[in-house]
Design a protein that fits this description.
single chain, alpha/beta, Nucleotidyltransferase, domain 5, five-stranded mixed beta sheet, 28 strands
Length: 560
């Protein structure tokens, strides 16, 4: 199981069972139906859409509901048996565990793990596993099946009465109830060498091979493996000099092989680097590649370290349904989460193994540098912003910290900026479409820029007849500045100009109202209010349900 599973529940009564299952998989997230479940890690609004999305992302699914609901939700997606994630249905009270899909992805293993945690028996129905006590087509972690289609024929032969003998080290098969015979025509062969396909042989490769590379392409690595007579599925990971962390060709090669890419300091030549990482391995040098063959499957996490990752994310305005899926996934896999405490708490709940680094909202550069220090150690780090991280938020500070840094380890970090729904866009959507034409986004805070610059830009933007979106409009430290800003705007706008005031949009207790520029008073606004000042073409009209719609048409009157 390469991805952490998603535990999906429909009601509050399932939460206790879900939390017991989560103890088996600490990386798993509990997905609860919005409005019906409190205390879940993530919220969703549509059960079927959620299940299909998880399935398409190859995420193992543990659904606490009737099996029929799961089957109907996923029926349209079912295709090849070899490419599906594990899917299980578990009774809400934990009294039954039913593996539904993903026999080749370890679903029966998961079913037994969950059943043991819940104190029940798993409802295993796979013929081969019931007969032999193990799934030959799904070897345990650290081993890989060479050919799934050949494997299916092989298991069918055993079920039909053929005997089998084992060649190589396969400790998990010692307890299996296989029809063993030294004179058997069928053989299970366990080894790292490449072998020609045979109807009479089930070939399983231990992932005991590490390929040390200085660079090169997927094609060159495959050529080296072929020359050394080593089967590609036996490769556990690639190992490279940490100075090559950002080498895209290496990442593409690892992705092509379906293995991890690990890094270490190169204090010797390539062979010495590999030998230091795997002292018990046999080394084979082929061209510019050093192949290490270990006596047993390699624990990849013990080989070098991974490339660190730093993601700067935007939570959106606050509502879980307005958080983009990529951000939710990033939070789920994070080891360290940094940010202003209010925003970090909004991003939760978190698992016990996730480390939270909460700081004051004025410590942006220190926070950014700390994030790089953590990521440079190989950790998966998230820096949290509300709204969109690139709009008056942490993305700029993170990039500034990187720009100023001469530490090569920081520049090797896998840095990604993930967008979120900004406060101006969320407020505009609630009001209608006041940002439907050209607009200008401004912060009225003079903490990082002088008021004279703000005033000049305000004057020019108002003169240009742009819709204006004000962030940080007012605070206790600067109560007068919104009034000063409105004086500038009123030089160029009529008193009848619509103004949208959105407070805490996307959060509990949100309010939205539309006033005119003449009616707008600074005391109507606080730091948590988004102010959208319309242009000369912005229109309002009544909503049937109360209040008003506001929009700015995409056309513009011809110059007179």
């Amino acid at each position: 199981m390469h991805q952490a599973p998603a535990i999906v529940i429909l009601g509050q009564g399932s939460l206790a069972t879900a939390q017991r299952i989560q103890q088996c998989y600490p990386q798993a997230s509990i997905h609860g139906l919005e409005g019906r479940v409190e205390g879940a890690d993530l919220c969703y609004t549509a059960f079927g859409d959620t299940l299909r999305g998880l399935y398409q992302q190859n995420t193992p699914i543990i659904a606490l509901c009737a099996a029929g609901i799961v089957i109907r939700s996923l029926a349209s997606l079912l295709s090849e048996k070899g490419v599906e994630p594990p899917v299980l249905a578990v009774a809400e009270d934990g009294s039954a565990v039913v593996p539904l899909l993903g026999g080749l992805g370890g679903v029966n293993v998961m079913a037994r793990e969950i059943a043991e945690a819940l104190g029940v028996a798993a409802a295993i129905t796979t013929s081969g596993e019931l007969r032999f006590g193990t799934c030959l087509l799904n070897p345990p972690q650290g081993y890989a099946l060479a050919d799934i289609e050949q494997g299916k024929r092989f298991v069918s032969d055993l079920l039909a009465g053929e005997a089998v003998r084992i060649e190589g080290d396969a400790p998990w098969l010692q307890q299996a109830q296989l029809p063993a015979s030294e004179a058997a025509r069928r053989t299970i062969h366990v080894g790292y060498q490449a072998r020609p396909a045979s109807r009479d042989e089930l070939l399983i490769h231990p992932r005991s091979v590490v390929v040390g590379v200085a660079g090169g392409s997927l094609a060159s690595i495959r050529a080296a493996l072929q020359q050394a007579g080593i089967a590609e599925p036996a490769v556990a990971c690639l190992l490279a000099d940490e100075r090559a962390m950002a080498d895209s060709a290496l990442h593409e090669a690892a992705q092509g092989l379906g293995v991890a890419l690990r890094f270490t300091a190169r204090t010797h030549d390539l062979a010495g680097m590999v030998a230091a990482a795997l002292p018990a391995a046999q080394l084979i040098e082929v061209a510019d590649v050093v192949i290490a063959v270990a006596p047993a499957p390699v624990e990849v996490k013990q080989v070098g370290r991974r490339r660190g990752r730093l993601a700067v994310i935007g939570l959106g305005p606050g509502a879980a349904e307005l958080m983009v899926p990529a951000v939710k996934a990033e939070l789920a896999r994070a080891e360290d989460v940094l940010g202003y405490e209010t925003y970090v708490r909004m991003a939760g709940p978190f698992r016990d193994d996730q480390v939270l680094h909460c700081t004051d909202n004025r410590e942006e550069m220190q926070r950014a540098r700390h994030a790089f220090e953590l990521a440079a150690q190989g950790r998966s780090v998230v820096v949290v912003s509300s709204g969109d991280p690139g709009v008056f938020a942490m993305a700029a500070a993170v990039l500034e910290a990187l720009h100023e840094s001469t530490d090569p380890a920081w520049h090797r970090v896998d840095l990604e900026i993930l967008p979120g729904v900004s406060a101006s866009l969320a407020t505009a959507a609630q009001a209608g479409a006041p940002l439907g034409h050209d607009f200008c986004v401004m912060s009225l805070s003079d903490n990082l820029k002088p008021w004279s610059i703000i005033e000049k830009r305000l004057d020019l933007a108002a003169q240009a007849d742009l819709v204006l979106a004000f962030y940080n409009p007012i605070s206790k430290a600067r109560p007068h500045q919104l009034g000063m800003a409105l004086e500038v705007v009123r030089r160029h706008r009529k008193g009848s100009t619509p103004v949208v005031l959105g407070r805490d949009i996307g959060r509990p207790g949100q309010t939205l109202k539309v006033v005119t520029l003449a009616e707008l008073l600074p005391e109507m606004v606080d730091m948590r209010t988004m102010v959208l000042v319309g242009s000369s073409t912005t229109c309002v009209f009544p909503r049937l349900s109360g209040g008003e719609w506001a929009y700015t048409p995409r056309w513009y009157p011809s110059a007179s």
